[in-house]
C-alpha cells in the first residue's frame, strides 16, 4: 500500500514544474526572435537620398513684384479747366492720330472773348478821340484788366506746379513742362503790361507824347488776352497724338475737370513692359541690360518668361509696404521679350533679379548642413558607409550654399541629415 501511494502522488508532483519550463521556453524563443530581427535590421543598409556633387553656376538675387504696362503709352491731360461737354471714346477703343477724343465746354471762354474784342474796339475809339485826361471809367476798366491778368497768373502758376510734379514723376514729356513755363511767363508779362497801362492812364494827362504808346500797349495787352482765349478754345477739342488704344478713362460727360489733370491714356498694343520698385539697397546691384526672369501665376500653373532691365531711376521715392512700413524704393523699368506670352495690362507678376553669378561652383542645399563641433558638416557616403564630413561654406543664396573646403566633385552627400537610424559607420544604400 505504501508503494501504491508513491506512484499515485508522482504525476501530481511533476505537473507544476512542466508549466514553468514551457513559459520559459516561449519567452526565451520570443527574445531570440526579437534579437535576430534587431540584428538583421541593423545589418541591413539604410536607404537614403543622395546628391552627387558636380560644378554648377551659382546665382544670387531677389524677387520683387512688378506691374504689367504697355511698352509705349502716352497720358492725355486736360488742357483747359472747365466742364467735360462731349466724350467720344471709351476704354478699349482703337483711335487714329488726329481723332477727336473729347471736347471741353468753351461757352465761358467765348463770352470773355467777345468782351475783350469789344474792349479792343473801344480802345481804338479812345485813341482816336485822343482824350488826354484820364477818367474814372478808364481807371475802372484798367483795374478790371489787372484783376483778370492776376487771376490768369495765379491759374497758370498752379498749372505749372502740377506740370512740374508730373514731369518729376516722369509721366509727361519735358516739352509739355516747358510749354507750361512759357504760358506762365506770358501771363506774368500780361500782368505787367496791364499795370503799365494803368500807370499810363495817370500819366497821360501830363504830356501827349506818350498817348500813342499808351494805347498801343493797352491794345497789345487786350490782344494777348484774346490770343490766350482763342488758344484755349482751340485746345478744348482734345485729339489723339498717335494711333493706339484707350485706357485709364474714368470720367463722364458733365464732370468739371481742372487744368492739367490726366484724363486718359493712349497705348500701343505692341509689346509690354514692367515697372517694379526695389529697395534702394538692392538697386545698386541692378544694371541696365541685365536679364530678369518674370513669373506669372495662371490657373494652369506658373509661367516663366524673360525680360531685360531697360532703366533704373536715379533717385528713390518713399513707398508704403503691404505691412504699412515706409521704405525707400527705386523704380526699375523692364522690357519683356517679343516672344513673351499674353499678359493683362495692370496685372502683377513676380520679377526675379539676378545680382551675382559665379561659374563652376560646388553647391549643396542648405538643408544638407548640420552644426558640428565649432562649424558645420554634411553626411556623405564613403565605401558604402555614413561619414561625417566638416565643410567650409562660401557664397549663399536663398536655398543653396557653395562649399570652399571639405568636398570634391563626385562626392555623394545625404539630402536629409536627420534620419533616425543615421550614425557614423552605418551601411547606406543610396538612391539618386
Q: Helices and strands in order, then pairings?
A:
Layout: H1 2-43, E1 46-52, E2 56-70, E3 73-77, E4 82-87, E5 94-95, E6 100-104, H2 107-129, H3 136-168, H4 174-203, H5 211-235, E7 237-239, E8 244-247, E9 256-257, E10 262-267, E11 272-279, H6 280-283, E12 291-298, E13 301-312, E14 317-320, E15 326-336, E16 348-361, E17 363-365, E18 370-372, E19 375-382, E20 385-396, E21 400-405, E22 412-414, E23 428-431
Parallel strand pairs: 1-23
Antiparallel strand pairs: 1-22, 2-11, 2-16, 3-10, 4-6, 4-9, 5-8, 6-7, 8-10, 11-15, 12-13, 12-16, 13-15, 14-15, 17-21, 18-19, 19-20, 20-21
Describe this protein's structure:
- The protein is of the alpha+beta class.
- Helix content is 36%, strand content 35%.
- It contains six helices and 23 strands.
- A six-stranded antiparallel beta barrel has the order 2-11-15-13-12-16. It has a five-stranded antiparallel sheet with strand order 17-21-20-19-18, with no helix packed on it.
- β12 (291-298) and β13 form a beta hairpin.
- The relative contact order is 0.18.
Give a summary of the structure in a few sentences:
The chain is of the alpha+beta class. Helix content is 36%, strand content 35%.
Number of strands: 23
The major sheet is characterized as:
6 strands, antiparallel, barrel
Task: Work out the helix count.
Answer: 6
The percent range for strand residues is 25-35%
Q: Could you give the order of strands across the largest sheet?
A: 2-11-15-13-12-16
Q: SSE order in H/E notation?
A: HEEEEEEHHHHEEEEEHEEEEEEEEEEEE
As a whole number of angstroms, the C-alpha radius of gyration is 44 Å
Quote the average pLDDT: 84
What class do helices, strands and sheet pairing give? alpha+beta
Q: For the terminal residues, how far apart are their CA atoms?
A: 84 Å
Q: Which word captures the global form?
A: rod-shaped
Query: What percent of residues adopt helix (DSSP H or I)?
Result: 25-40%
The low-confidence parts are 1-16
Amino acid at each position: 500500500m505504501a508503494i501504491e501511494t508513491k506512484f499515485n502522488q508522482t504525476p501530481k508532483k511533476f505537473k507544476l514544474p512542466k508549466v514553468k519550463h514551457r513559459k520559459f521556453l516561449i519567452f526565451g524563443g520570443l527574445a531570440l526572435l526579437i534579437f535576430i530581427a534587431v540584428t538583421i535590421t541593423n545589418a541591413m543598409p539604410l536607404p537614403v537620398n543622395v546628391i552627387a556633387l558636380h560644378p554648377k553656376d551659382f546665382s544670387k538675387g531677389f524677387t520683387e513684384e512688378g506691374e504689367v504696362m504697355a511698352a509705349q503709352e502716352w497720358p492725355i491731360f486736360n488742357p483747359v479747366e472747365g466742364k467735360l461737354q462731349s466724350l467720344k471714346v471709351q476704354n478699349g477703343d482703337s483711335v487714329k492720330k488726329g481723332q477727336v477724343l473729347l471736347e471741353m465746354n468753351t461757352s465761358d471762354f467765348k463770352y470773355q472773348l467777345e468782351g475783350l474784342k469789344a474792349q479792343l474796339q473801344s480802345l481804338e475809339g479812345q485813341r482816336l478821340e485822343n482824350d488826354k485826361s484820364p477818367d474814372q471809367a478808364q481807371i475802372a476798366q484798367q483795374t478790371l484788366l489787372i484783376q483778370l491778368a492776376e487771376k490768369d497768373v495765379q491759374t497758370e502758376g498752379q498749372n505749372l506746379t502740377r506740370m512740374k510734379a508730373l514731369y518729376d514723376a516722369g509721366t509727361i514729356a519735358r516739352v509739355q513742362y516747358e510749354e507750361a513755363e512759357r504760358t506762365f511767363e506770358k501771363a506774368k508779362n500780361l500782368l505787367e503790361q496791364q499795370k503799365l497801362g494803368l500807370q499810363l492812364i495817370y500819366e497821360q494827362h501830363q504830356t501827349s507824347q506818350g498817348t500813342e504808346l499808351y494805347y498801343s500797349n493797352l491794345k497789345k495787352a487786350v490782344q494777348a488776352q484774346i490770343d490766350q482765349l482763342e488758344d484755349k478754345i482751340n485746345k478744348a477739342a482734345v485729339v489723339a497724338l498717335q494711333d493706339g488704344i484707350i485706357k485709364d478713362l474714368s470720367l463722364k460727360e458733365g464732370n468739371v475737370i481742372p487744368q492739367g489733370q490726366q484724363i486718359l491714356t493712349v497705348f500701343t498694343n505692341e509689346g509690354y513692359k514692367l515697372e517694379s520698385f526695389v529697395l534702394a539697397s538692392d538697386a545698386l546691384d541692378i544694371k541696365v541690360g541685365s536679364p530678369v526672369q518674370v513669373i506669372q501665376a495662371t490657373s494652369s500653373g506658373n509661367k516663366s518668361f524673360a525680360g531685360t532691365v531697360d532703366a533704373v531711376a536715379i533717385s528713390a521715392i518713399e513707398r508704403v509696404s503691404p505691412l504699412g512700413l515706409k521704405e525707400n524704393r527705386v523704380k526699375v523699368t523692364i522690357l519683356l521679350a517679343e516672344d513673351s506670352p499674353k499678359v493683362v495690362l495692370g496685372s502683377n507678376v513676380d520679377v526675379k533679379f539676378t545680382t551675382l553669378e559665379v561659374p563652376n561652383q560646388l553647391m549643396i542645399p542648405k538643408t544638407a548642413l548640420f552644426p558640428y563641433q565649432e562649424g558645420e558638416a554634411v553626411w556623405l557616403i564613403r565605401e558604402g558607409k555614413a561619414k561625417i564630413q566638416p565643410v567650409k561654406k562660401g557664397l549663399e543664396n536663398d536655398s543653396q550654399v557653395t562649399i570652399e573646403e571639405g568636398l570634391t566633385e563626385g562626392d555623394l552627400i545625404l539630402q536629409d541629415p536627420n534620419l533616425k537610424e543615421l550614425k557614423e559607420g552605418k551601411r547606406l544604400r543610396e538612391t539618386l
